[in-house]
TrEMBL record:
It holds the Pfam family FdhD-NarQ. It comes from the Bacteria. This is Sulfur carrier protein FdhD. The gene is fdhD. HAMAP family: FdhD (MF_00187). Coiled coil: none annotated. The active site is at 111 (cysteine persulfide intermediate). Keywords: Cytoplasm, Molybdenum cofactor biosynthesis.
């Protein structure tokens, strides 16, 4: 965990008094993504699984459709004040040239797109529209996924400061779990894993996230052809709108044996011992 965590001194205050002690924190560093030498974007992330992160990001942005679209991804020689490579600049060579966007990315909160424009853009850009049907997931299997995700958050155990995303089979097997300071990065990392494993479109998988379900997370699931997204916390209104528009099953407040199903409930099968609330 040498680059994922860092130690900083803190003053711990409690009812029993104060103590100076080191604390373990999640590392946050910039990653500049370049396409054929041209700067594309800079994202703040927790180092680790950067290749997966870039694959997932480029797929989410509609710039690639499969792993073979990337010929190479190499770290550039960015250095710190001691001359060591920071591994914070990644240059990607694409098989075919693509225009580098000049606007803010759809995934950023500052893009200024209205709700209808954002919905229309995702619908027209995805290469993997979700067909009707798809995997049927029992509520007991779905209810168990957040706990399995949490059990695999090793960096969160050390820091208490990271989001997580995981891809699961419909039967509840965890295939890939990634952590990051940014929830969107964690999702890009697992989508990038699926892309490199030739599992995109991921129409047989379930995406689980440790926090809330924002519009950008639903967008990423739709762009990767994932039919179901479950979140431990609440969705946003635009996330629900996009999920309904795309035919994605969106589940929020996935805690214990209760859950709220906001769209496409036909993929979720209630079974005895796992109560659900359909909202």
């Amino acid at each position: 965990m040498s680059r994922v965590t860092a130690r900083r001194r803190t003053r711990r205050i409690s009812p029993t008094g104060e103590i100076l002690r080191p604390d373990t924190l999640a590392v946050e560093e910039p990653l500049e993504v370049r396409i054929d030498g041209r700067s594309l974007t800079v994202t703040m992330r927790t180092p680790g699984d950067d290749i997966d992160l870039v694959h997932g990001f480029l797929l989410s942005e509609g710039m690639i459709g499969s792993g073979v679209d990337i010929v190479a991804a190499r770290y550039c020689a960015g250095t710190d004040d001691q001359g060591r490579n920071t591994y914070n600049v990644l240059d990607v060579t694409l098989r075919a040239p693509v225009p580098v966007p000049t606007r803010a990315f759809l995934t950023t909160g500052a893009c200024g797109l209205c709700g209808k424009t954002a919905l229309d853009e995702v619908r027209t850009r995805t290469r993997f529209p979700l067909p009707p049907g798809g995997p049927i997931v029992d509520t007991h299997a779905l209810a168990a996924m957040p706990g399995m995700l949490r059990d695999r958050q090793s960096v969160f155990d050390a820091t208490g400061g990271l989001h997580a995303a995981g891809l699961f089979t419909a039967e509840g097997e965890a295939l890939a779990v990634r952590e990051d300071i940014g929830r969107h990065n964690a999702v890009d990392k697992v989508i990038g894993w699926a892309l490199r494993e030739n599992r995109v479109p991921a129409r047989d998988l379930v995406l689980i996230v440790s926090g809330r379900a924002s519009f950008e997370l639903v967008q990423k699931a739709v762009m990767a052809g994932i039919p179901m997204l479950g979140a431990v916390s609440a969705p946003s209104s635009l996330a629900v709108d996009l999920a309904a528009e795309a035919g994605l099953s969106l589940v929020g407040f996935l805690r214990g044996d209760t859950m709220n199903v906001y769209s496409a409930p036909e993929r979720i099968r209630a079974v005895p011992g796992a109560n659900s609330k359909l909202a």
